[in-house]
# Entry
Amino acid sequence: VQLQASGGGLVQTGGSLRLSCDASGFTLDYYAIAWFRQASGKEREGVSCINFSTEGRAYYAESVKGRFTISRDNDKNTVYLQMNSLEPEDTAVYYCAASASPIMATMIFDPNGGPLAPNYEFWGQGTLVTVSS
# Structure
């Protein structure tokens, strides 16, 4: 079971990036998938999550709501995070993670409305997003 995040880079304030989370060794259809981020010197925070395929509901932290969109392409076994109107505060290493308990994982959120890391068993390596001012 492997997850690989990609798509990070350097972008100016107001710009956009699309992150990808590719899965291998398992099918994402039955998992909840989440994006987390960790800025330098700060704790990891939940950004967004999407329920398993046939349910498909998406959830967002308040800090990214209206700017970020999570989606899944089951044919490609990939989940995306489209990030628009990026701000310097979005600079962080972004991680994708999967939960085999999608109902529970999408019922409990942090105070900011983001997913909770302990609910996700499988993690990919991070991809760095840098937003310049």
